[in-house]
Amino acid sequence: MKSIYLSRYKIFFFLLPVFFGCRKFVTVPSPVTSINGGNVYTADQTATAVLTGIYAQLSNSGGISSLGADATSVFAGLSADEFSFYGGASVNFLQEYQYYTNSLISNTPGSDGQWGATYPLIYTVNAAIAGLNASTTLTSAVKQQLLGEAYFMRAFFYFYLVNEYGAVPLVLTTTYTTNALLPRASKALVWQQVIADLKVAEAQLSSNFLDVTLLASSPERVRPSKWAAAALLARAYLYTQDYPDAEKESTELISNTSLFSLSPVNTAFLRAGLGNNEAIWQWQPVNSMQNTTDAQVFILPSSGPDNVNYPIYLNPGLVSSFESGDLRKTNWTGNVTVGGTTYYYPYKYKINDDTTVVNEYYMVFRLGEQYLIRAEARAEQTETPGSLADLDAIRSRAGLPAYGGATDQASLLAAIWQERRVELFSEWGHRWFDLKRTGTVNAVMGVVTPEKGGTWNPDWQYYPVPLQELKLNPELTQNAGY
Amino acid sequence: MNLNTYCCCRHFKPLPRKWLLVMKLTTFLLLACMMTVSAATKAQQVTINLKNASLETLFTQLEKQTGYDFVYDEQLIQNAKTITLKLSDVSLDQVLTTVLQAQPLTYILEGKVVTIKQKESNFLDKFKSAIGLDKIDVTGKIVGDDNQPLSGATVTLKGANNSTITDAKGLFTLKSIDPNATLIVSYIGYEKTIISAKADLGTIKLKVTDNKLDEVQVIAYGQTSERLNTGDVTTITAKSIGDQPVQNPLLALEGQVPGLFINQQSGLPGSGVQLTLQGQNSIYNSSDPFYVVDGVPYSSELLPNLGVILGTSGAGVGVISQNGNPLNFLNPSDIESISVLRDADATAIYGSRAANGAILIITKKGKAGQVQANVSLQQGWGQVTRMLDLLNTPQYLQMRRQALANDGLTGPASTDYDINGTWDTTRYTNWQKLLIGNTAYYSNFNGSVSGGGNNTSYLVSATYRDQTTVFPGQSADQSGAVHFNLNSSSPNEKFHIQLTGNYQTDDNRLPLYDLTNAAISLPPDAPPIYNKNGTLNWMPNSSGSSTWANPLAILTTGYTNKTENLIADMVLSYEILTGLKLNGNFGYNDLRSAELVTTPLISFAPEQRSFLQRNSVFGNNDINSWTVEPQLNYQKHIYKGTLDLLAGLSAEQSNSTVQQIAATGFNSDNVLGDIASAATLTSAGSQIATYKYIAVFGRLNYNWEDKYLIDMTARRDGSSRFGADNQFHDFWAIGAGWIFSNEKAIKDGLPFLSYGKLRSSYGTTGSDQIGDYQYISLYNPIVQQVPYQGGTAIQPSSLANPYIQWEQTNKLDFGLDLGFLKDRVLINATYFRNRSSNQLLGYNLPIQTGFPNILENFPATVQNSGWEFSLTSTNIKTRDFKWTTSFNLTIPENKLLAFPDLASSAYAQALVIGQPITIYKVFHYLGVNPQTGLYQFASAGGGATSNPNPSTDQTYEVNRAPKFYGGLSSSFTYKKFELDLLFAFTKRLGPSYQFGDLPGGIDYNQPVSVLESWEKPGDVKPVQRFSSEYNNVSQYYDLLSSDGGFQDASYIRLKNCSLYWSLPDVWVRKCGLRNGRLFINGQNLLTITRYSGLDPETLNVNGLPTLKVLMVGINAGF
């Protein structure tokens, strides 16, 4: 019997350590493929990588519902009178066609648009703000710059949301329990937040253009700087009719001639590193062998537009609104004639073939817009000479004579808006937003939409809240007209 | 007794109320089988005509005629006188009384057993018996049919409280028992054997049972039989798996297991398989059962992979549905049995992982004996089960032109190449026939050798399989598998070792995308595939742009998946004492795949080749896991029953790795498979995760005289998938069974009832199938081809929830089993009710939170309940002809029981309390408005509208879960022939295809049903006006989100039809074979359905339907 007891002991000994080792056994280290929320904001490199991640994603997404440059430019441009859409509806471009004919519906498959693309990035920004504020181990210059970048990006995202959707939920934290049930904040509140964030950003951000270490300067201007914050702030003040402040912010940029100057039209979209001082903020392309997707989307092949790959070309109305001799028409548009019809296309970005030479970066903010912001802000304050000087600076760069029309406030403003149309076309939906903020949208679209094959309804200046979101958040309301 | 007696109960004394209830419950099933049972088993009237025969001869004849067992000591009847007898149509009693009168013998008839005994003798004998002087010690050895000792067999003294179990050598001793006693030997999987006692019984060989109730059922950490099981388990054996030419063994279960609903995702080799066991427990996650292969836990999902063509596994909409299915890499012909465990009693011992049931797969084991070799060669052909009835060219053109006319347009747009003259409108191509109408070829070769001596047995087998697709071109799946099993024991039989290995290598070569979509959508007048010079025709227009996407360009792309799967398992066991065993189970699984996706330049339209790049993606996935499970097993006869105790530990670690690399910059299409030829390599994703798991568990099982059964299990689990505070949790279950047919009152009162069991179980199980590291907030790298500023980029991967806990499912189960006519008719009815609460769900969130969902314990309760019925009967059994049928039916019901604050939650629009979680909220479809020609729907305020509001007007519900499903199988054996049929059926709804895909507006072909379209005011037609301009798009999409967008997708499918012919013995001998068999197997040969889409099984409009396959083959044994 002795041997039996021994066996039982053996078993007991065998089992014992496993019982006590249980808790230890089921504890696994964090995965080697991931940084986690606990340590990401403790080191300069990983904290920087979060913000860099946002720019990389933005630059990378040339896709349909992204906030990539061409997505905003394409959708807002289609909604306005900038683009024509070739071949009517096709199954490849159902959503684009709905933007084009101002007939979006809330449940088109894949129609979560900018709403769906932007909020995840806002989460990242909010997480970064919280994490950076709590961090005690970052180099202080790095921490300050990253905080500035985060506040700036939040303002940037809400700027586009409020312009496209009107009132939107104003999410400023990462607490999903409260965020999930946030209703839409009024447009005024969103604007207020945009401006507040930009003021913080302007104070925090470096006045140098930084490299990825955030401690040294870079010849490129691909990270937000104090100047990017000022540029967006100037625009935000203009949109909110705070003209003195708009003038003040744009002056900051225009007067800093050591950093910024208007480039000749043919070099205005090159990367800053090639000496393009027009650039305030650009995005570096991140796809191999590629310059901008804008060039790939807009530049038509010799076969002209089609409904498979190249459905977009410039609205003839826009083309005919260029004055004769405008260098922008000759340099910033291209054309192709097929079957007796000439199709114009945006040609600001010129490199659309595969190449390892990347000379064009996405232009997000540039000095040309700042002149036009100041011209308009001054006109609104009836500082006519200053306004004319700014307008003419832009006209002169385009090879046009000084403005010779009427200089009463209404005429001058109309001239500035026309100048914006031909200066900023195909960039970032400027035209669509201008039509809305200047109150001309119903007059213009009432004519243009029927030409495009739709019927205009004033409610449709705001895009629909995606149906999916309405279902998931009972506090959300739909925009009128959908 | 005669047949009438079975059918009506009026001859019986009044029954207790509960019996009447029980009988009511099963009356309809009973009636069904009564109709078919032949009169061959009529009453026990016998006819005897013997001359000078031995008693043994008489007993043998009586056994044959009555089916009763005769039990006697051979010595006892050796000295009996011979008999001469001529009796016809007399009762058994009469015969025995007549014959034994003249002998010193008497008999006792108990149940179906006749025991022959010595007549009560003189006073001295009685006295000896009374004081116990004549008691003997009985010893014996119990062996199985392969002469291997059976350890743990129960030997019971009949009618007394005396019982023992055999030791490792199969030996047993029963001390001081009556020399006239009768012993009953029982062992799972063998016929219960009755022997008369004597001092040395020698070796007693048990016969493998042919009663379905007594066949071995593999359960968690053990085995039992259907008769004695307290849990809800179905076991499918090699026979019915082997009948079916399937690549994935799960597909062989379709229609055979109550409660198990299986859907193949496409007819391609390696495709995904969606499977739910007793319904969907999770509102969000997939509900995969827990798989165990030879004791080794096996993945229920593959790792993230590149095989988009394969379709996903997992029935949920959640985060862990991946392409393909891991069970595709397990060779069906190496499988001995598959057990499907459903209720808490069967699954709770798997604790946290079996909330969705468990599926145990056991591979074939070696058998001692002469060396036996088996060879099986099969060859087959497959085609799609169904094609759609699509428009021909004139109908198509008519539709397109009608659309133009409806929109008031005078002519087609310049891009409407199909009707504007660019394409030849007199052409007609049957694209379905061209693209998915080819024949797939199947080959399957298998060889195995088994044998062994006293202490060692082995099995080795090898299989080669080759399967092509119905696409044009060279797509094919080839696989090779080897399987081995080695068993050995020490000379004293106390120590056993069993080593099992399964290795399969699979090479699946498919295009990147399924051609089915092109096959049903390409216009019938689309251009020819090839130019005259044999190159792909892109049909350029006048300016050189391609006017269509040539479908065969897809075939120039490639998806290659090379997978290797190794499952190795070693079981060591040592018998410390009789009844006390220490087992160690050591398992290892390595499932690794190398994938390659190639997109050559020639797959792009020529004008795009200047700016699109040929590219490849390389993927390497690996899941390796090991498991160690020491267990202690104790078996003891206590009082009138057998006690089984099990205690064990389970530790598991699983490491998974995913690496995907995108490659561009190749200078030729020919080198896309060579990573070194790429100019640029970028990471396309990586995942490295470790999962650890530990548990202690115990089980107590007590079987009181095969009458009362009780089973209790408990388990404490720890998983690395949870935060530190919530890593451990307890699970338990209790199950009880009452075999009331073994009660004397029932035996006497309901003699036609050969088996009756009531069982019930209740317990808790859980789920940790949520993916790794969900409790921490992870930042994952962003793949950048050209790093932004040369730096790294990361992003948060999900919302973290450090408080997540185990999900819990409480399972309640009642079962009634009845056997009639000596178990020739078996009926089972089971009611189950599973309530899942505290669920771990990806809680859908509005995107304004940053993510579409978060993993959270969910304060909702989902109930899956339902009835499962099965009926097995041997309808006819004569010497030459046997007909058996088996039927099962599952009627599931899913219901959302509770959901606090549903109205204000994110699920307000998706769920309704009291309704299934599988509903869609939809508009109510009201047909086409005869005036406008547009689809219209009921509006919430009453009336009809063609512009319904999704927020308020989606007031109807459509349930996508099946209403009922099941199967009917029948097997006919006549002499050397055997015919097996298996029908599977399902009643459910599916997305309707009769309204086409935006008919008229786009250059897509449509089903002929769209021709019934509205054309002018006043028309009453089922299809709305064709439009060329997308004016009616919203009505079309609203239709798809209305009840009109769904239709009955029920089907009955002849899943399998097999015909076997065993070669005549003469031939077999001449060829030097042991046996030989020719066979034809047909899979999915017949489908009866009214569904308008391609396949009611896949319900996938754009996926390849399941194939019908015909295989011919030969089996030979040497």
What would the keywords be for this entry?
heterodimer; A: 482 residues; two-stranded antiparallel sheet; 7 strands; 6% strand; globular; B: 1118 residues; mainly beta; 22-stranded antiparallel barrel; five-stranded mixed beta sheet; 11% helix; 45% strand
Task: Give a short overview.
With 482 residues, chain A is mostly helical.
Give the low-confidence spans of chain B: 1-16, 18-43
Largest interface: A-B, 106 and 95 residues
Distance between the termini of chain B: 47 Å
Radius of gyration of chain A: 26 Å
* Class based on secondary structure composition and strand pairing of chain B: mainly beta
Query: Strand content of the residues of chain A, in percent?
Result: 5-15%
Question: What oligomeric arrangement do these chains adopt?
Answer: heterodimer
Average residue-wise pLDDT of chain A: 88
Total of DSSP H or I helical runs spanning 4+ residues of chain A:
19
Percent in helix of chain A: 40-55%
* Structural category of chain A: mainly alpha
Portion in helices of chain B: 10-25%
Relative strand content of chain B: 35-45%
Reported for the largest beta sheet of chain A, the result is: 2 strands, antiparallel
SSE succession of chain A: HEHHEHHHHHHHEHEHHEEEHHHHHH
Principal-axis shape of chain B:
elongated
Strand order of the largest sheet of chain A: 2-4
Shape of chain A: globular
Please tally the β strands of chain B and state the result.
54
- Poorly predicted regions of chain A: 1-19
